[in-house]
Amino acid sequence: MTAASASGEPSAKHTKRRPRFVGWRFVLCALAAAVVLAALVRAFLFDVFYIPSDSMQPLLEPGDRILVSRTAYDSAEIERGDVVVFDGRGSLAPLHSGRPAVLDAAVTVGRWFGLAGSDTVYVKRVIGVAGDRVSCCTDGDPRITINGTPVDEPYVYSGDAPSNHAFDVVVPEGRLWLMGDHRSVSADSRSLLGAPGGGLISTERVVGEAQRILWPLERGTNIDRLSLGAEWNTEK
């Protein structure tokens, strides 16, 4: 007999295999549950984004991974000085990338694991909110003015001017004026002054607030608007 002993008991060969199979099934179920839980957390609570460029130096360096709160603005207003992550499709990025679907899927997987940046999701600093008049380089003052008041910006990349060209915009309801800290290399609201929407980003496109640098570990720190030293003392 091969399947059972003479007494009808399962053979030793079969009794050894069943626990091993049950163990692997438990591991696979646990891994699947962990992936689903992580996906839910990243879709609704927190996400991790890879920084691919130097447009937010010196605060963020290429290769940094940042923690982004998707719920930060559920019960709070977006404020001047906040560092936000937003979907740039239709504004800073084309609506369709033109890449093969397979390549798009590979990029999405890489971004999910923090191994690649997105070409449609950006991180910038909020300079103007609804009702603000944001101007630069007027009346001989090189600083940006918000509602007529010049503001100091200690977070701007060393050696950069507040802006390479003049602008004067009024931010309408539901829109934001966003700029990178490394002004000389940042593609931001200034880049779209002549386009539909005038470079003003919809608040509905904001994914969340950048709250902490997670990686590399030696650069781990909170991203706090107030701790950056900017004094946003203008009144709308």
Summary, kept brief:
The chain has 236 residues and is an alpha+beta fold. It is built from 2 helices and 12 strands, in the order H-E-E-E-H-E-E-E-E-E-E-E-E-E.
Describe this entry's structure for a reader.
Keywords: Hydrolase, Protease. It is found in: Cell membrane; Membrane. Its main location: membrane. It holds the Pfam family Peptidase_S26. Belongs to the peptidase S26 family. This protein is of the alpha+beta class. The model has no long low-confidence stretch (mean pLDDT about 80). The chain is built from two helices and twelve strands, in the order H-E-E-E-H-E-E-E-E-E-E-E-E-E. The longest helix is centred in the first third of the chain and has 33 residues, at about 10-45. It folds into two domains: about 10-45; about 45-230, Umud Fragment, subunit A. The strands form two sheets. Strands 1, 2, 3, 4, 9, 10, 11 and 12 form an eight-stranded antiparallel beta sheet that branches. It has a four-stranded antiparallel beta sheet with strand order 7-6-5-8, with no helix packed on it.
What is the beta-strand fraction?
25-35%
- Uncertain ranges: none
As for the number of domains, it is 2
Q: How widely separated are the two ends?
A: 89 Å
Q: Kindly state the mean pLDDT as a whole number?
A: 79
Task: Look up the CATH topology of the largest domain.
Answer: Umud Fragment, subunit A
Alpha carbon gyration radius: 25 Å
Inertia-based shape: elongated
At the first level of CATH, what is the class of the largest domain?
Mainly Beta
Q: Based on DSSP secondary structure assignment, what is the total number of beta strands?
A: 12
Question: Helical content, roughly?
Answer: 10-25%
Question: How many helices in DSSP terms?
Answer: 2
